[in-house]
Design brief:
This protein has 260 residues and is α/β, with parallel strands linked by helices. The protein contains eight helices and nine strands. The protein has one domain: Rossmann fold (3-Layer(aba) Sandwich). The chain binds nicotinamide-adenine-dinucleotide.
């Protein structure tokens, strides 16, 4: 997808890997200058952007730490410029030890809510303050299909992602009068370094077939599918789109993919 983002400054959280990395690369390919955030090393993403002729700087910050987020946003604005595009992408989930809510550990609940929900709030608050003053900007929150239709055994993730998507709409109502747009993306099952093993490990073949049987398009998505949606929502082509959640899930949440 080709849009015009030349000169715009974009902060992408959790951009060292996976969906965030693809979003950062795609925004850079369209001319944006990228602040790459991650709690882990994001040098690889910055190198890839620069090798392709783009501009990027790395900001190693945990989005669940409010003071660190405020410092990061102030530093990005001083070093690169006022932020035009914020993509709240950083996220975590429970991993393999999935248990029902009545056994869900406190520390896992708080860890997931802190990163997936508090982090979105902290970054959005810090960035939207200056967007409102400048009367421009686009915020894109990466939720999940499970924020639209919940899944079992992931109570913190489904609660956090539903929160992110409703927060998206609430913030859109507040900042719309200042020309700031806020939208969400709800990815379905997307192939990343972390999830690839779920689909292509012979040991989990049965699980992969079961997952795929729920997806009308018959396959998991690619990180580039989410990046294309983010590029559109960041661009002026989406200038009348705000408070919207774009579901990118191969049809998973459209309804039952099996006959009854
Ligand atoms: N992959 C999927 O199938 C899928 C589906 C639905 C939603 N999502 C959402 O998309 C987003 C990206 O997921 P992904 O699959 O690319 O995950 P990923 O694990 O591949 O990448 C997430 C990145 O976020 C970073 N991160 C984690 N905690 C952080 C923190 N506290 N501060 C800053 N960075 C942090 C990680 O270091 C990592 O680089 C997440 O919000 C996730 O919930 C993914």
């Amino acid at each position: 997808m080709k849009v015009e983002l030349t000169g715009r400054v974009a902060l992408v959280t959790g951009a060292a890997a996976g969906i965030g990395r693809s979003i950062a690369l795609a925004l850079a390919q369209n001319g944006a200058r990228i602040a790459v955030n991650d709690v882990n090393d994001g040098k690889r993403t910055c190198d890839e952007i620069r090798e392709a002729g783009g501009e990027a700087r790395f900001y190693q910050t945990d989005v669940s730490e409010v003071d660190a987020v405020n410092t990061m946003v102030a530093t990005v604005e001083r070093e690169i410029g006022p932020i035009d595009i914020l993509v709240n992408n950083a996220g975590v989930n429970i991993g393999k030890n999935r248990v029902p809510t009545y056994q869900f550990p406190d520390e896992e609940w708080h860890r997931i809510i802190r990163v997936d929900l508090d982090g979105v709030f902290y970054c959005s608050r810090a960035v939207s303050a200056s967007m409102v003053k400048r009367k421009r900007g686009a915020i894109i929150n990466i939720g999940s299909a499970f924020g639209v239709v919940p899944a079992r055994l992931q109570c913190a993730f489904t609660a956090a992602k539903a929160g992110v998507l409703n927060f998206t709409k609430s913030l859109a109502l507040e900042v719309g009068p200042y020309g700031v747009r806020v939208n969400g993306i709800a990815p379905g099952s997307i192939l990343t370094e972390g999830t690839r093993i779920l689909f292509y490990n012979p040991e989990s073949k049965q699980k992969a077939e079961s997952l795929i049987s729920h997806i009308p398009l018959g396959r998991p998505g690619e990180t580039e599918d989410i990046a294309a949606a983010a590029v559109y929502l960041a661009s002026d082509d989406a200038k009348y789109v705000t408070g919207h959640v774009l579901v990118v899930d191969g049809g998973w949440t459209a309804g039952f993919a099996r006959d009854w």
